[in-house]
Write a structure and sequence with these properties.
- The chain is of the alpha/beta class and 383 residues long.
- It has 18 helices and twelve strands.
- The protein has helices at 9-18, 25-35, 38-42, 46-50, 57-69, 72-81, 132-147, 160-170, 192-200, 216-228, 243-253, 271-278, 288-294, 296-303, 307-312, 326-334, 342-349, 353-365; strands at residues 85-88, 107-112, 121-125, 151-154, 175-178, 202-206, 232-235, 257-260, 283-284, 340-341, 370-372, 376-378.
């Protein structure tokens, strides 16, 4: 990859802040609030930095030194060698769900491709040390949900995470892996092949600089991204102190749904999962349809249509035709029972692929489009 393709000018400005010591998402948000943009904040002196909440004189000095010494060019060159792009909140590709959490990442490193349809995502998380039952359920839910058009989000870890990715890939669906290390390496190392498959049919994602090693301190912040990217979090198997429980807690904070698969009552691996259900912090689910039932109109659309509606060839979510924008009318007119990709629909409708992809999300929510495995789309009424 050419370094010029790695990051936009806005992403370069954000990247300097991402590489600056003592500036995390919260402090960066305060900088933007105070100065208006990442670029404007780069020109702030020490005295101006001191005016930011949480930044005292010593911290302001440290931030100014680190900001000015950050080797942005080296980071961009390293990302290019690994086929990684760096995006920021000002970039169109930046995931919409992450824009609305309290602490969105300054930058995202992406190997693979993000799609607007990834907003229809469910996170599947659980323990690294897992039972055969847990791994089977993670694979099963990953497969079933991806088959219905959901993107599966997880952390590429051993155990539950890895199996959920594998299930989604087996269904021909999309999956996103959020890592707790830089994308110059894969952790755990035995998941290198799986990481390549995820990148080919989804994306590997991190907010950490390229060479950041895996560290226990990275995983709680990573978990907030998994929760933030998703409509809901499914906990498949979790011990009493599993990191998956922190992901579930973040999901609740972000007003996402929390689901849990019940486990054996005498298994240490299911103590945390069963407690979520017992304390009514999670909804008990046994199959993908249980999750879709809780997602309202989105879930109904992804479940498809009932037999009577299929016979009539009409979507079952609306008794009258919903109001459509110009783009929605153009794309809807090109949908039929023959599966078509985003680029095919874009060519047929005469619209940019990015606009067609975002339009398809709205059409799905209105019951007028259905996503199939392989990121293909049809008019509802065809399974």
């Amino acid at each position: 990859m050419d370094p010029s393709e790695v990051a936009s000018s806005a992403a370069i400005e954000h990247l300097r802040w991402s590489l600056t010591d003592q500036v995390g998402p919260i402090t960066f948000g305060r900088l933007i609030e105070r100065f208006g943009s990442a670029q404007a904040a780069l020109g702030a002196g020490v005295r101006q930095l001191e005016s930011i909440e949480g930044i005292g004189p010593a911290t302001a000095e440290a931030i100014a030194r680190s900001r000015d010494r950050a080797d942005v060019a080296c980071e961009v060159a390293l990302a290019a060698r690994h086929g990684v792009r760096i995006i920021c909140r000002d970039d169109e590709e930046f995931p919409a769900p992450l824009r609305h959490i309290p602490d969105p990442p300054i930058c995202l490193y992406v190997r693979g491709r993000l799609e607007p349809t990834d907003a229809l995502a469910i996170a599947v998380v659980g323990s690294r040390r897992s039972t055969l039952y847990g791994r089977e359920q993670a694979y099963r839910f990953g497969y079933q949900l991806a088959q219905r058009g959901m993107t599966i989000v997880s952390g590429l870890a051993r155990g539950i995470d890895g199996e959920s990715h594998k299930g989604a890939l087996a269904a021909g669906g999309r999956t996103l892996a959020v890592l707790g290390n830089g994308l110059a390496s894969v952790y755990p190392p035995e998941h290198r092949e799986l990481a390549d498959r995820v990148a080919a049919d989804g994306a590997l994602i991190s907010e950490l600089p390229m060479t950041t090693p895996p560290d226990t301190g990275n995983f709680l912040p990573r978990n907030r991204l998994i929760a933030g990217l998703s409509l809901g979090v499914l906990v498949v198997e979790a011990a009493r102190r599993s990191g998956a429980l922190s992901t579930a807690a973040r999901a609740s904070e972000y007003n996402r749904e929390v689901f849990a698969v019940p486990g054996r009552v005498d298994s240490d691996y299911s103590v945390g999962t069963n407690a979520l259900i017992r304390d009514q912090h999670a909804k008990l689910v046994t199959c993908a349809d249980d999750i879709l039932d809780e997602l309202g109109e989105v879930g109904q659309t992804l479940r498809g249509t009932d037999e009577e509606t299929e016979a009539e060839g009409e979507p079952n979510l609306f008794h009258v035709q919903p109001t459509l924008s110009g783009d929605e009318q153009a794309v809807c007119a090109k949908l039929d029972h023959e599966p078509r990709s985003v680029d095919q629909l874009a060519a047929a409708a005469g619209l940019p692929e990015s606009r067609v992809a975002s339009t398809l999300i709205m059409l799905q929510l209105k019951g007028l489009a259905r996503q199939l495995p392989g990121n293909l789309f049809v008019r509802p009424g065809k399974r």
